[in-house]
Design goal:
Layout lengths: L14 H6 L11 H5 L5 H4 L4 H5 L3 H8 L3 H10 L14 H12 L9 H15 L3 H18 L4 H22 L8 H17 L22 H19 L19 E2 L1 H14 L5 H24 L6 H5 L1 H5 L2 H8 L3 H15 L10 H12 L9 H8 L12 H7 L2 E2 L4
Antiparallel strand pairs: 1-2
Helix pairs in contact: 7-8, 7-9, 8-9, 9-10, 9-11, 11-12, 13-14, 13-18, 14-17, 14-18, 17-18, 18-19, 18-20, 19-20
Length: about 425
Amino acid sequence: MVSRRSHQKSRTGCAQCKRRRIKCDELRPACSNCVKHSITCDFQTGSPSSASSSHPPKLLKHVSSAKSPASTRSSILSRPVISNGLDPGELHMGDLELLHQFTTATCYTTSNRSESHDLWRKTVPKEGFHHDFLMRGILAIGALHLAHLRPDRAADYQNIAHSHQDKALSMFRTAMTNMDESNCHAFFGLSSLIVVYAFASPRRPGSLAFTDDSQTSEGEAAWLPLIRGVNSILQQVFGWVENGPLRGLLQPGIINTTDTRLPKPAAHQLKQLTGLCETATGGEEAVEACQEAVKALQKCYAKIFTRSSVECEVATAFTWPVEVPDKFIQLLNARAPEALVILAHYCVVLHHLDDYWWMGGWASHVMENIDNELNDSWREWIQWPSETISRNEKCLVWRPLSPDVVASQTPLSINSI
């Protein structure tokens, strides 16, 4: 009896060979049997064989169980969106415009230091995403900058800025009761922006705007108390901030001036002010307050004059309001002429910040109103700062001097005044 030739069964052959019960050699794109008999092999059409469909590989199981792209898109779109109360389908283009303005332009105008630019551009907005009051402050400054750049829409942007700032301050006051390491950086950031906002806001003619809120017009900020307030907040959180993401904005040694050189005209004026303080009206306390204010002004002048390019001129200029005693602020509020004269000489420092869009014109504004407060017998005391500002002279900028003015501009030590 002739034995039947055995062969290994093919379980993955084409359907044509299986139907004819012959072995399929599984060649692609068509098996040899289908080619020999001139029939279409299902390997060519890509249709699965009966065996393949009855015993799909594991990979095919995963593929067959996967959702189609269309069904996946539908599933994603149908998922609920977690939101903070805002309509997830609504983009607030106005706020995006303000944030874009701040991060692409405004951030470069708060300081002369490149390190500060990067912090205001990236780090401060990042903090703002975690603290609404800081983000509101950012948007308010962005709006005021656009008001400055687009005069035709200034009123609109100022109204937007005012709305954001009001909400920022309301949340800021509430959050201050729980100031800690987690939010101190946001407090420091907004405190700094509040000062910028005060100077960038429209000025009221005839107002010095340095007194407390009860003596200023509605919506007008008192810039001297604000600067002092920022320093007060910084002192509370300094230990955290100096080790945090905004430490690059700090210049802790800025008040401790070691180089006391001054140009001669400025040194001469400070010497005259020192003599004026000795006869200040208001008793010994007033005399001491004015003397302390002049000493602080001497240091501020010297620091501006000898400042290196890596030091922030804005922070340097704002050391004087921080250094003067509370009694001197009281004398300013009372419009004491000696205090107003000293303030007029500080306007020479403010004038050095005149190129910043948010500080432009402030020195002239304060000088003009000081002049209106003083009677004729006091005006000679403010002649030098008034003329320096009117000539647009930055007298505290160190620069190479021509031989004919070296003698009158030779730096003079404060100690020799």
